[in-house]
Give the backbone structure.
Amino acid sequence: MKKRIIALLMAVAVSAMTCLTACTADEKKTKENEKIQLVFEYQKDRISTDFEEVLESKFDVDIIMVENQSTDPRLRLTNEVTHDMAPDFVLCEYMRNIDKDILSEYFYDLSKEGFVNNYYLQALQSCTAEDGKLYYIPGPSYVYGIIYDRTMFEELGLEVPHNYTEFTELIKTVDAMKLTGTEPDDNDPDKTVEVPIEAFVPTMRWCDMSALVFNTFNYNDTFVGVTNTKWLSDYQQGEGSMTGHMEPAAEKYLQLFEDGFLKESFFTTEPGYRSRKLYQYHTSLMTIESQQGYAYNKQINEDDPENIHELGIMPIYTSDEPDSGYLYAIPRSFIAVSKQGASDEKKLGALMEVMSYLSTTEGQKLLIAGDDYFGFLKEDTSLESDFYTEVIDTINAGRIISNFYFEGDNHGDSVETFMHDATPDLLNGNITVEEWLLGADAARDKALEPKSEPVVYGEAKETLSPLQTAYVCGLAYLNSMDADVALVPVSGYYGTQAYFYSGDITDDIIKLITTENLYFTSNDAGMMNYAVAEMTGEELLTIAANGKDSSMTAIAGAEMTYAMSKENGEQYVSVKINGEELDPNRTYRVASMKGVLGKAEIVKEYDELNFIDMFIAYLESQGGIIEAPTELEITE
């Protein structure tokens, strides 16, 4: 049996799919001899479009970009590092959720590198592991404050507040002015209705915003200092109770409603409506939003640029004391270096040079798509605009709160969800403060309950490449659908981009290799459904050879020889179905997701099928064993 995976595919495992479809083997070999090759794995929309070009020109390295499009980027990354397939760089928002033992064993400690001094200490403390090491540093973040309509403030003669009392007085002042504006009529989009202009309309529709407000206003009293820090650490590990510690925080939270800062109606305000009120209808003057508000303002008014108002962002003032304003940061991603990548001394030097550059204001702009950028750097020249005028002192003083979860980063937001959902009952006297806090304890305890051992459905005898994985996924389709062959692209749409890792096969592993329900939009209605279409051999090969984003596509059920270095459309050296060469004029039954089948005639749609059930059924038919498919041959 011929070798199925070419040498480079195994040597640079996570990058093979990307680099081998971009250049020929000879070209790649020449590059490798001349330059140090660095594999950079990132999540969708986490980098600028010129990231690769800038780094390659600055450092004379060969950057291999790998997009982690998995439904669980943390799980994919964990499997990569534990299977000796680690990328050199990682840009991932879920680094905090990776098991601490995995971090310490497989990721490089950055704490002694000089570039970490570029960051605010508070930001680094939020990334420091229990062993005192720094396995990742913060990338660009969403930084939340109070976005205000600077144009309306000037027109109405309103002063920007600089403490909590001034803020709440401003709300009362605007209410007393009894201003009105217009919004579209819900019953007739061609008409408008007159509505009051409100001073402050945030959304508390989801628990992350209520947690942001609660944590910010109680930051100094409840979370800062040795005693408070120890309490939070113990609480996150299941020790202690909110009772006896958080009662003052609960009372302060209730005070926000009494003072008019918060209203119960905010818990049903949709985020989109909140944004339209401020940016488009101009029927509110302020909201809680990140720096993205600046871009939303332009996007919402794209068809009517004359409707754009000037905006500003101010801190969330928590009291009348000096320096009481805070911003709240939710990192868009974290940056890490794998020990596998750093094990080569020559490569380590290149890695640290690149990391040093990414720890500058210029470099950080490469780590976010678009203009909505904020980094935790002490000297950030990107903030020199009128939009940031009111928060410059806050940023320079490092008064930026990093988000956290009461049940710890590895367990989600169950406590925050309970507190959010139970707040209306607290406000209406249906539960007491003590009951609210005890309910939070119960949510914490449930979140920390030991997880049951995963169900093992079988075993993968070896690690499969993305194309091999796609082929095996297609075999699972054929096991449940009546078709001659199945098409599975190696891409983030309607297929798989993952490696199928050797070892136990569990629900998590099966989820890792499908993009079912990923990137689903209103325009994709029904495109994720599984179906069988009839098409000619020519049509089948055209779809396979011209997959989305020029991706590889497995033709499962066929004897298939795929040449990695061939031009698009010529990679399918040989395709045999039932032992016979693919006939361009013959009609075949082809199984896939509807999004892959395109305009082909659908003869049967399987609305009830889902990938996990199909794959488990296929595993059972194979005696629980997955091996590299012998029908698939991959050549250079």
About this structure: The first helix runs from residue 7 to 11. Residues 1-32, 517-523 have pLDDT under 50 and may be disordered.
